[in-house]
Structure formats: C-alpha cells, structure tokens
Amino acid sequence: MANGFKPEWGVVLSRGVGVLVILAGILLAAGLCIASKSGQAPGNPVPSIFQTHSTPADHIVRLSWFVLTITGLIFAVVGTLLTYAVLKFRNKAGDLQSEPAQVYGSTQIELAWTVIPILIVVVLFLATARVIHAIQDAPKPTSAVEVTAIGHQFWWEFRYPALGFVTANELHVPVSDPAHPTPTFLKLLSADTDHSFWVPQLAGKTDLIPNHPNEMWMDPHRTGVFLGQCAQYCGTQHAKMLLQVTVETPEAFRVWIHAQQQTAVQDDKEAAGRRVFETTACVDCHAVGGTNGTGRFGPDLTHLMSRSTIAAGAAANTKENLRLWIQNPDAIKPGSLMPAMQLTDADLDALVRYLETLQ
Amino acid sequence: MSSDAMAVQTAGAADRPWVETLHEWVTTVDHKRLGILYILYALVFLVIGGIEATIIRIQLIRPHNDFVSPQVFNRMFTMHGTTMIFFVIMPMLFGFANYLVPLMVGARDMAFPRLNAFSFWLTAFGGLLLYFSFVGGSGLYGAGNAPDVGWWAYAPLTSRAFSPGHSSDYWTIAVMVSGFGSIGTAINIIATILCMRCPGMTLSRMPLLAWLNLVMTAMVLITISPLTAAQIMLLVDRYLGGHFFDTQAGGSATIWMHFFWIFGHPEVYILVIPCFAFISEIVPVFSRKPIFGYPVMVGATVCIGFISMSVWAHHIFSIGMSSYSNAFFVGTTMAIAVPTGIKIFNWLGTMWGGKLIFKTPMLFCIAFLFQFLVAGLTGVMLGAAPFDWQLTDSYFVVAHFHYVIVGGILFAVFAAFYYWFPKVTGRMLNETLGKWHFWLFVIGFHLTFDFMHIPGILGMPRRIYTYEPGRGWDTLNMIVTIGTFIQGIAILIFVANMIISYFKGPRAGNDPWDAWTLEWSVSSPPPAYNFATIPTVASRRPLWDLKHPEDPDSLYE
Amino acid sequence: MSAIANPVTQTPWRLPYRGKVAMASLIIAESAIFTIFVVAYLFYIGKSLSGPTPREVLETPIFFTICLLSSSLTVHLASRSLEHGKRGAFLGLWLLTIVLGGLFLFGTGQEWHRLIYEHGLTISTNLFGTTYYSLVGLHATHVTVGLIMLTVVLLFGLAGRVGPEQSARIEVLSLYWHFVDAVWVVVFTVVYVVGR
Fold first, then answer.
1. pLDDT (mean) for A278-283
2. Chain A: partners with 3+ C-beta pairs within 8 Å
C-alpha cells in the first residue's frame, strides 16, 4: 500500500465492528423477547402480535417463532463467520509488501452454499404454505357470527345483517369455545379509500378495499378488550381510526345483541335536543333508530352511549368530549369529515343531553 | 494534469468568468461531469429528504405530539419516500454508473453523450417539479401543498374525489418524467457496456461493476415502464375522466397495487444491485484478493434480476388474494433469498484468507455485509405470508426496508464515496473525519432502525401522525428519534469532510488504493477523453497484470 | 496504457452497433408499457357497468390492418435497397411505407370518429371506452411518432442526403417500425378477437 497505514487502528476498528454487530443482534433478540412478553397480563393494552388469543393469530405466532428460529440461526452462523473473517484476516503490522494467495473461487464451496439455502427455503415454504391454507381456507361453521365491516374515512361501521342492527368502531364478538366454536367471520368492505382491519392479538390484517370484498375470521378464546387500528393509509386522519374488539361470554353477547336491536330510547324530557338533532344537518349523516335520522355517512348513533369512545377511539365518550366534538371536531381529530355544527350554546347543550339518553 | 476537467475543477473558477464555467457544466455532455451532476443533485435531495425524515421523527418522539399537523405529516412521509427513492438513490447510482462504467470498460464516453445529458436534465426537472408542488399543489386558489398520498399512491386515494387540487398530479408527472430520464440513461449504459468495451474486454472479463450495472439497467427497462404505464392511466383517470382505478365505475383499486409493485419490487433490486457492484469492487481491493467466484456472482445477479420480476405481490399479501397466489409469491420471495445469500457468501469468501485493510471504504462495506444480512433475514420473515399479515404496514416493515435502503444501500454508497472520491476530485477524503462519520452513522443507524422493529411487533401501524400512549410504543419511539439526530450529525460530518477534503485534502495520485480496474490507470481526475490510447486488456484485473507481470490473472481465467 | 496490452488479442475486436442495441433496449421498455396496457384491457373485459359493449360497436379494421402490416415489408425492402445503393427504389418504397402508415392512422381516426359521434363512446363513458382508447391511442401515438421520423428521413432522402453509408441508421428506424407493427398484431388480437 502506498499510503501510511496504522495497524493498531485496524485492530480497534475490526473489533469494534464485531462487537457492535453482536450488540445489534442482542438488541434485536432482546426486543423480540420484550415484545413477546408485553401484553401478557389481562388488561394490558399492548397489542403485541406475540400475545395472541385467537386461532388465526395463534397459527401465525407458531409460524413466526419457527421462521425466527431459522433466520436467527442463519444470522448466528453467517454473522459469526463474518466476524471471524474480520478479526482473523485483518492485516498484521508490517506485512504490507506481499499480497495474500490469490484465490479465484471454488465450485464445491459454491455448490454447498447454494444447495443448503435451497433446502432451507423449501422447508420454510412448506411450513408457510400450510399455515396459509389453515387460515385462508378454513371452513365457516354454521354457528359462526357474521359481521360486515365497512371502512370509512375515518371510522368503522359494523353491521350484523342476521341480527338486524348497525354499530360503529367497537366490535362485539362472543368468545369461542373449542367444543362449540362460535367464530366471527367478517366481510370487509370499504365506502371510500383503502383501509386495513388489524387487531394483532386476534388475527393478521386484511385490507378493506372498495369494489373488492374481502373476508377474515377470528375465534377469540378469552374475554376481554383487544385493541387495534386501521393499518392501511387512508387519508388525513388514518392515525385516529382506532378499533377495539370486545370479546364477551355468550350470555353477555346475547344481552348486548338484545340491547342493540331496540330502537332508540324516547325520553320526552329531552325532546328539545331531539328536535335539534332532527332539524339540523345531523340527520344527513347519522342515523338514530325511531327518528327521521337515517344518514349513513357517519356512525349510527342509536346506541351511542353503549360505546366507550367517540370519533373512532379518538376520545373517551364523556359529556365534555361529546360537546367539544359537535362544536369543533378539529379540536379532537383535525381533518375528520364531521363538520363543526355551528349550534347555539343552548341547542348544543340540549343536543348533548339528548345524545346522552341514547343508551 | 493539463486536462479540461482538472482545470475546471480546481483552478478554473479563478481565471474564467463563473458564467462561462456554469455554462460549460449546464451544456456538458461529458459522462464524468454528468456523473458528478447526478451525484451532487442526489446529495442535495438527500439533505432535503433527511430534513423531512427528521420532521417525521420529531413529531413521533412522544404520543399525542403536535409538532406538525396531520396534513403536514402526511405530506412529509410522502415526499420523504418519493424523494429518497426517485431523487436520491436513483440519480446517485446513475451518477456513479455514468462516471465509472465508461472508465471501467475502457471507453472515452458513453454511447450517446447527448442522450445522457438529456436524461440527466429530465431527472433533474422531475425533482424540481415534485418540489414545486409546495407552491403550486393547490392551483391558484390557495396556499400550495405537496402530495400526501404516500409514495405508492394507492387508488382510490389519488382520484379527484379524495385528492383535489394538483398535488397528486405533481407527484405523478414528476415520477413519470424522472422515469423517462431513467429509461434514457439505462439504454445508454446498456449500449455503452455492450458496444464500447475496449479491445480484449470480453463479457467475462468485465469488472463486476459493469456487469451488475448491465443487469440493473436491463431491469430498469422492464420495470420502470410499467410504472410509467400506470402513471399514464392515472393521468387519464384524473384529466380525461377515465375509469382505470375508479371503483365507482367498476374499476379496480387492486390493479394499481399490482402495477405499482410490479415496478416497486424490482426497483428495490435496481437500487441494491449497483450497491452490490460497489461492494464487489471495494471488498477485493481492501482484502488484497480477487473477487471470489466471479462467474457465480454474475449468475446470481442475473438470477436475482429474473426472480425479482415475480415477487411483487409479497407487498400486498393483506389485500385478500387467493391462498394459491399467496403461496406462489411466498415461494418466489423465499427463492430470491438464495442468490442473494450466495452473494454474501462470495464476499465472505473474498475476505477469507485475505489481508483486510480497514480504510473507511472497507468499514462501510463490512457494516453493509452485516446489515444487509439482517435486512435479508427480516425480509424472509416478511416473505412468510401469514407472518406478513401481522407485520406488513407496521413499523416492522418500515424498519426492514430502511435496513435495506440505509443499512445496505446508503452504506454502500458511502463506501463508494470514500473509494472513488480521490479519482473524481484528485484528493483523498480525510480518514479521521471518515471514521467519525462511520461510527456515528453506525450508532445512529442501529439506534433508529433496530429499535424501530419493535413497535411494529407491538402493533404500531406505519404512516400515523400520532399514536396513543400506553401501548408500549413511547420509549421505543423516543430512542428511534434520538438515533435520527445522531445520523444527521454523521451526515453533516460527511458533507464537511467532502468540502474540506476537496480544497485541502492530500493529492491522491492515480492509484491511491493499489487497485486493479482501468479507472485507476488514468490520472485523478481523469482527462476529458479518459484514455490517451484505448487500452487493451487480457484479464478481469488489468492493473494486477501490469503490477505483477510474473503472475498475471490472464493465466488463470 | 499500451503496456497492459497482451498479445492474446489476435482476432479482430468486434462489438455490436450501438444504435441497434439502443433500439432493442427501447423496444423492450416499450413492450413493457404495452404489456401493462394490454393486461389492463384484458382484465377489464366485460367489467363495464354500462354500455356500449365492444360487441355492439367495434368493427374489425381488416383493410387498415393489412396496410400497416404490409408497410413492414416495404420498410424492410426499402432499407435493403439502400444497403445495395439503389436510392430510387429506397425512396419509392420509403414513401409507400409512409402512405401505408398514414392510411392506417386515417383508419384509426375514422373508427374513433364513428365511435364518438355514432355510438357516443368516449374515454370516460365506461371501462371499455377507457381501456380501448388508451390502448389503441397509445399504439396510434407510436405510429404517429414513427411516421414523423419516416417523413424526416424522406425529406433528407429527397434532398439527396441519404446514402448507403446511412443504411445502419435506417435499419435502426425500420426496427422501430417493425415493432409498431408487431404491437398492432397484439392489440388487434386483444381488442378485436379476444375482446369481443
């Protein structure tokens, strides 16, 4: 080499590279472990893909660990070889004049590192294809609950066609007992742009695409609330298109169905608020069973108070938030399609009081 | 050193009016100057794209942050993606190809010098058009805005109903125009490699860089064109009332996804194959050994080129294809890991038994090898369709492709900068600053992109301008953002190093690395005509033969 | 640099002509564009939500197809004549090529006129209109570009500037024209045979 070369630097640097890379590997592994541990405790809201409570997600976790093990082994082997090469073959001090042996290649070695990866790939492919088949081609039992999920900018509409009611943003499904499975089959549609239904603990994501109906299923075997959100960029408020699935015991689910099937509560004390609802643009987009509100652009409000959040999970369903949401939606969710309603304070209060009766 | 290029680059400004120098650069058809223009242009956009990335990361440093509005955030990630792919990496790699290919195959210029200039200016115009959207995106009636449809611009978000104004049109036309530039340059590079090689340089004696660029440009022809076709369709929809992607009139949103990814996946290989080329040139020189398994390297690259045309749908496993289609694309996706793995093994084989010299270019190469290995393995995970149903559109996939694009491609580009800067400017880059750049960038990179995988596993989707607290994402996002700043500092050191070394660096001489390919046989910077007499070669390493007449390569090939 | 030279190179060093390589590359790129349009056309066959349908309105343009395909032959003969130095024959055949190409373009225009004014089919009518006008229009654009280039050569030829020494370039241009014809065979099959 023509230029001055400091061999000590070489040692330090090469070791540094090795150490750093090993560290990176450990970090990644540690991350995976943390990821797999979090979300274990009931009520912990971390939607980890490794803490699953439904058959399709369980299938995926098993495949994931298999793939992770194989790729981890490959990383360990190749990473070790690379690190070894970097440490072992660094140029020693004062050895700059002669060139090393010029090796041009070796057919046997090339063959070895072609055939072994091919075998690994075949194994991975077969394992993957099996899981694809198990999830995608699963038969639909007659006991399945059918729900049509429709993606909107930026909220979820859930229709229960066999049961005859519509709700929004918070999906309720029964827990599925392996002896008497009651899986939920979702038909996925979109009213506008692409969306994606993702509740990591229950199933992988499937997109909701206009003019392209999709289907997915889940059979949660534990009650609880599972979080997710829209995973396909759908416009300005993609971030606040949250989703929650409440898994209930069969009894609780039946009670919930019964409540949802009723028309809206008629409380004459709040007739003023109802008049505001019925005589403003509210009814263009929102439906309340038993009133003249039949709009479909926004969430069905018949049982608004049975939901814990408003604006697709962007805010808790409290009186203050409801009022703010009607008055100035941009304060909660800038860019949402709900317009500011420009009501007088008196009308606004009456309307909120009315909405609060919609149990 | 009386050549034109040297005169302009070092002393020219002093004794000639700057307008004349500028005029020379703007009207140049010299492949070396166009190469430099490409690279400088890409560097400018690298800084712009980096600023956009920083804005994204500041916004995400904590939950419910309000550093920017959702509208601005959406524009930022759209512009960041589009800029980095189309206006940083593509022109960067074309710049290197432009500069190096004629020198390495022993030609005096590209096959079509004027087409070369035309293609560059098309690309340049495309970038300016994209950024003009900040002014003209809303037309005359309002403040401007940039496209906010994501860099893959899925239908129907790009339809008039969801994307009024002109922001999407700027995106479409900018990408299309730069695509025409890419096709022009690709044709030029192919013609140069096939028709301009110096005597003796058979295809089997070409430097790997030329071979890999040949494969890359062939892929450009086949894969940029579908994107162009899809963009034409989108323009028909937006301006002539067509229905290609109009779901209300029976059109299909998924066909856009297919068309886009038929371009989009091979594009990844278009970007990474020239980087393989850099690694294949630099690793041998700093290992003091020829590349291990040259024919296998060529074969594996061609193989990657072919297979990469049949894997596109692994980007859209979640759109509800049949289980058979899904299985097919799992198979092809996994298959492409084999030739890619072979390449890594061959670089390992090149280093094995060599004498590794840890100059800055080599450091970047070694980091590339490790990081590209990880990127490949996370790619295998994403290739397993059911695993992908969880990981796609999450931060895991964002981390994965940044591992490819930053950890792989950008590291290789930095290696190339440190390696060829002496040839281009005649001066060495500063080694100390280079090592600061390397280590800071490595640390920043790993802080950012190692930790970015985890929120994805914990259910954090990509492209969200804010997120809910308490889902286990908060600390991780803060670490990711901190890493971004460290990378930013490293980039500033790099830029400073280039500027300082350009004026003050030690003279490089013709062949500072004791290398073996033809570009090192001419002066640094090379004269305008490259070679006074066209060389004749007898092996893959002509300068090795020259330096070791007792044991030339030509005896073994 | 001559020191690198090695006495191995006994055989003369021959490389392909860059014009041909470039045109072949361009043809590959163009083929990819047409492939996408053809795929879109095939994908959307029968998916229009409203009429008119291809079966109702399309008429097979057999005469104009024969014109275009035979122009491939004339352009080939023209470049062959030029190679042999027969300038007169070259100019005549070249002109014939332009006339045949022009006739084809006229045929396309006539069909579009009929579709628009008699059947009310425009590019925004339905999916058929969108895909039909895009695919056929893309091809017609290529014919137009080809005709412009052919005409430029003709003008140079009339000015006496095209001789056998340009035959390699003329060959490159005729390659493009062959490509345009070949694409028409595909478009014709897709639109008038498969698509009805």
1. 92
2. B
